[in-house]
Amino acid sequence: MRSKKIRVIVYGLGAIGMLIAKHLYDKEWAELVGAIDIDPSKVGRDVGELLGLGSIGARVAHDDEAIGFIKNSNVDVVVHTVTTYLDKAYKQLEKAINAGAHVVSTSETLAYPWYRFPDLANKLDALAKSKNVSVIGTGVNPGFIFDTLPAFLTSVCIRVDRIKVVRSIDASKRRYPFQKKYGLSLRPDEFYDKMKKGEITAHVGYAESIMLISSMLGVKIDRVVEKQEPVIADKHMKTKYFDIPEGHVAGIRGLGIGFVNNKEFVVLELIASVGRSDYDEIIIEGVPPLKWRNEYGTSGDIATAAMVTNMIPKIVNAKPGLLTMADISIPSIKVNI
Amino acid sequence: MRSKKIRVIVYGLGAIGMLIAKHLYDKEWAELVGAIDIDPSKVGRDVGELLGLGSIGARVAHDDEAIGFIKNSNVDVVVHTVTTYLDKAYKQLEKAINAGAHVVSTSETLAYPWYRFPDLANKLDALAKSKNVSVIGTGVNPGFIFDTLPAFLTSVCIRVDRIKVVRSIDASKRRYPFQKKYGLSLRPDEFYDKMKKGEITAHVGYAESIMLISSMLGVKIDRVVEKQEPVIADKHMKTKYFDIPEGHVAGIRGLGIGFVNNKEFVVLELIASVGRSDYDEIIIEGVPPLKWRNEYGTSGDIATAAMVTNMIPKIVNAKPGLLTMADISIPSIKVNI
Lengths: 337, 337
Prior knowledge:
Two copies of one chain form a homodimer. Chain A is of the alpha/beta class. Chain A is built from ten helices and 15 strands. The first copy, chain A, folds into two domains: 6-139 and 302-327, 3-Layer(aba) Sandwich (Rossmann fold), CATH 3.40.50.720; 148-297, Dihydrodipicolinate Reductase, domain 2 (2-Layer Sandwich), CATH 3.30.360. A seven-stranded parallel beta sheet of chain A has the order 3-2-1-4-5-6-15, with helices on both faces. In chain A, strands 8-11-12-7-13-14 form a six-stranded mixed beta sheet. The longest helix of chain A has 16 residues, at 300-315. Strand 14 (290-294) of chain A pairs antiparallel with strand 14 (290-294) of chain B, so a sheet runs across the interface.
């Protein structure tokens, strides 16, 4: 018999995984029964201890024992927060599915996996169906600000000509790994060099968000353009972690554009730079025109951890297979289930 | 065999019904096959003629022949735009369901019918299930600004303490029936008198929106308060239709509050008054806090007609029975299906 609480394992105890573990511990409807990682400083310990809560009876298992650990823990849902690219995530997702668990993952390319990894997506879909479980990729982005929210906002429109979303982030407020990932304080040539080597990746998921919108609206995107460029400091700047001379990199501007009939239909812009204000803005050019703006911005880590946590009660009742946010009933916080 | 296009009849050719009929005529995926009304100036005519489009082969039938007309027209979906209260709408909905059609209705109390009409709701649910069709009430409000949109915005929150929505409308821009319904130019005592007699109803649906949010979030609302009061002109004002002396009614302020554990959890405020600006604002007090604002406001008629139109491709694939917006995958405009 299944317990009334939804039994969850967090697969990957990075910053987001730890946040989700904490949320799950706080939720009445969830039971955090363990975690999986490869970090020797975490494996074997209690998740509660790592969170500073004392022992809560939720052990961190090593990735090598993942299948048995998930199976024996009678887990309903595995929350997967390990890596951006589906090819790298695949083995982990496979283990969770083979152990009979539903999966909610922050893997950005899983939000619409048919774009970058069509073969793996089909394979994953078949596996999930064969095990009668559901798999979904979500988070704040892809998953919300750049796709499902603008799509939802169009539900009161009778015509949509163009969707533009701007996500503006004050990079100086983000944690160190983000500031580093954004290339803060580099010379522009260093920035481009590191970007070529894949050391600066910034945001991944523009194309996934565009394809998710198009799948919801029923429009055929004929071309997707993704690009990233540095924002150059026009004066000397400082953050807690970086000293940025004038002319060096103060942030990153990423852009995703989806074209329909050779015209821009979706334009997604993420600017994370020192000195920017935090806000999100969604402009729908259509009938009626709409301009929604979140004055406070949406903190990425907190929002992704929240979206994933709130998705857990939905995934246990979803249809089997590899799903996208387009398949799920309107998400919201789940106070009780 | 069913045609690929979704075959639709509009039940009720008031302002909203006419707008929807026009939208359906424009949509590639829909076929407007007829309408139903009781107005002698409309019955027997072609909907296209009423829309100024010339004949489109879509006759307006009288309500008395509704069942046969829907059945014979091989209709997939009936769009019902007749009346606010479910007890008055029930016979019409019953006819559509008995004729084998799915129903999307603008009836405000149908958005969460278990609040005001629990017996009729259960009866309708059983009937819809027995006929294997789906029935839903939606629109801009209830259906969007006051309920599903704020609920969706909380999906990136890990805690929600209070949801406040303000919908501000410049009453001078609304059409005559609205200005009259709002009681413009009346003395305050006349306003209250007409409100008692039910001649001023203003917005109906605060409670439905509150219950819809609570059903989505899994919170137990222990009390709902709904009230309406006049906004008094602090100077002489004018609209296209009304001359408003100082001290007379310039608009209406409606309020719905849902309490959880004796504390305000949902506060919905609609202010439609001469001199107000048009905007919608959704404030989520929680973690993280959010403040989303639509700078342009959301035109009620257009938005309701759009939401209903966009719901049609969803309802044909929904599970049978009486549904709410909480049962539907994330709505959006449907360019193609």
